[in-house]
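Write out the 3D structure for:
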Amino acid sequence: MGEFLETTFEKFIFKVKVGYLYSQEEFWANFQNGAATVGLTDFMQKAKGDVAFLETVEPGVEVKRGQEIGKIETIKATFGILSPVSGKITEVNPEMDASPFLINHDPYGAGWIYRIKLSDPEGDKAQLMDAKEYFEVMKDKVAQEAKKLYG
């Protein structure tokens, strides 16, 4: 299943999948064979709540890193899906229409959102954080959320 870095706050366990790369905007990319599978981080899916609906763009669309390529609607908020990579969308997870909750149940596996054929893999990698870097950023975000709750 792969290795994870984990931190706990109250009843929540936040996981970061080792081997994936992460954006500041809370999306991950798993690079393989000139393409990347893209999804939402475990931290963000827990922070935003249960996913109710996804609005996605169609395969064939060219995207740039940081570009909004859809929306995620949860019980708490609606927010944009910001691509962590540049390239052409080749596939949208076919399970998302019927089962958007897969993002909550398995954010680094069955809950993937897009597959994108990369146009600038080295440039993308240079802009993203590895698991250890992102883990430190995520721990800071967890601490900030705790501060909001408890002062």
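The longest strand covers residues 68-74.
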